[in-house]
TrEMBL record:
Its membrane topology: Multi-pass membrane protein
Name by which UniProt lists this protein: PTS galactitol transporter subunit IIC
Regions that span the bilayer: 12-29, 41-60, 88-112, 146-166, 224-241, 253-281, 313-332, 344-362, 368-389, 401-422, 428-444
Keyword Transmembrane listed: yes
Length: 475
């Protein structure tokens, strides 16, 4: 059974599995078959479009990033080889495969009994994040039940974080009744909330670094495509600093510039197709999903994190963070992690930070930097264990690398801390993580509407601060 489920995921991938799930959900909610099929087809088209454009963009930018790393001459012990290595580990261990089935059942049951309003099985592929940490714990301790307990508890934490931010993510990125629940990114919610609160108190929301303001102030240079082109040129020059005297270097610089501009131009069109896939379900849910109180049950469908990658503020902030994170990795005391392959994945990593700050690039750069720095230290602590697991399942270490990691997936403060606590096998510490979860769940469950209202009021405050700033500048 486990092998069959794994084979289905490997053979079809998210671009097929997600539309199939959407089709059957739509039918269950009494959407007409033709409309359900069109919704599913648009979801498949959107996901395929996201993957194609990001897949084409990555190999264009990656050589410049690698050259930036080589230019520094730094020699850190832990090399970022990309998220693929973590997925191989997750799908290659017995305990990982057990959770592939268990997680699917758990998430579906929790949704059906209304323990959560997040339908997480629609993003089944990203369960490999839970499977990774569980596999690492199992290889280290040999304790199957402890490893399963870690994966289940991590899943519960992630569902609660998703409940907190679901409405904000849906509104900001423009996907009705949808949210992003990827475990390796959703755990940034506590930090994003705290930093947004503190930065707003300090007046950072008055620093109007967002796409709309930049466009107003810079004219045509502030348009998303122009900003993308300029930022791409800067990134290309940073990666070709030692080749500015060659035609090849300038060729790569210009290609990166126009490619980044292309992302800005094409991504919104694909996002529009993808968003249209959920209109039928959203409309149907208003009349078919009733809660016990007689109100509409507002629930959210978990979708792939690629849906937010190319949004203007997200991509711009992610690109700006690449050189910042690389420099910090070199100079931070005690860090042994060299981010490399996954640097291009930073826009995925900061989606929750971006939507909570309502697209404020200035605030997001600060919060994103802190998130990434914490990730460097988490990875430094757990990379020896991950490397051992990876070698055991047949992953080959790159030449010259003592240890490997995935910067995008293993930059996870919450799951990293849970893993280290479970590694102690101390019942008191493990019990404390369960108690903290129960308190968090009850608080969110009782105060969810207030939390959503607070996040929307903070977003409105961002907009109002922008209007006041613009009026002040005009005077």
């Amino acid at each position: 059974m486990l092998n069959i489920l794994s084979s289905i995921m490997d053979a079809f991938g998210a671009a097929i599995v997600v539309p199939v799930i959407i089709f059957f959900i739509a039918l269950i909610m009494k959407v007409k078959p033709k409309k359900a099929f069109n919704a599913a087809l648009n979801a498949g088209i959107g996901l395929t479009g996201f993957n194609m454009i990001i897949g084409a963009y990555t190999p264009i930018v990656t050589p410049a990033i690698n050259r930036m790393v080589e230019t520094t001459g730094v020699n850190l012990r832990i090399l970022d080889t990309g998220w693929q290595a973590t997925s191989v580990v997750a799908y290659s261990t017995q305990v990982g495969m057990i959770f592939l089935a268990l997680g699917l059942v758990l998430q579906a049951v929790l949704f059906i009994i209304k323990f959560t309003d997040i339908f997480m099985p629609s993003d089944l592929w990203n369960n490999y994040s839970f499977m990774l940490w569980g596999s690492m714990l199992y290889i280290s301790t040999g304790n199957l039940w402890l490893s399963i307990g870690l994966m289940v508890l991590s899943n519960l934490y992630c569902l609660t974080f998703t409940e907190i931010v679901a409405k904000r993510w849906s509104i900001y990125y423009g996907y009705p009744r949808c949210t992003m629940s990827a475990p390796h990114h959703i755990c940034s919610v506590p930090l994003a909330l705290l930093m947004d609160f503190l930065l707003t108190k300090l007046g950072a929301n008055k620093v109007r670094w967002n796409p709309e303001t930049l466009q107003d102030k810079l004219g045509f240079l502030g348009e998303p495509t122009s900003l993308g082109f300029v930022l791409g040129l800067c990134l290309g020059m940073a990666g070709n600093f030692m080749r500015l005297d060659s035609l090849t270097g300038w060729g790569e610089i210009m290609i990166i510039g126009i490619s980044t501009s292309a992302i800005m131009a094409i991504f919104p069109k694909i996002a529009g197709i993808f968003a249209s896939a959920f209109t039928a379900i959203t409309d149907a849910s208003k009349g078919t999903a009733k809660s016990s109180g007689g109100k509409d049950r507002v629930w959210y469908l978990a979708i792939n994190d690629a849906a937010g990658y190319g949004e203007t503020a997200t991509l711009l902030t992610g690109m700006l963070l690449i050189p910042i994170v690389l420099l910090l990795a070199i100079f931070l005391p005690g860090n042994q992690t060299l981010p490399m392959v996954d640097l291009i994945a930073i826009p995925y990593m900061i989606e929750l930070i971006i939507c909570i700050s309502n697209g404020n690039i200035f605030k997001s750069l600060i919060s994103g930097t802190i998130w990434c720095v914490g990730g460097l230290y988490i990875i430094t602590a757990v990379a020896p264990i991950f490397t051992q697991v990876a070698v055991d399942v047949g992953v080959n270490l790159p030449e010259g690398a003592l240890m490997i990691c995935s910067f995008a997936v293993m930059t996870n403060h919450i799951m990293g801390i849970l893993f280290l606590i479970f590694m102690t096998q101390n019942p008191l510490w493990i019990g404390l993580t369960v108690v903290v979860y129960i308190i968090l769940y009850l608080f969110v469950r009782i105060k969810k509407e207030s939390i959503h209202a607070y996040l929307e009021s903070m977003a409105k405050m961002e907009e109002e601060a922008g209007i006041l700033a613009e009026k002040g500048a005009a005077v």
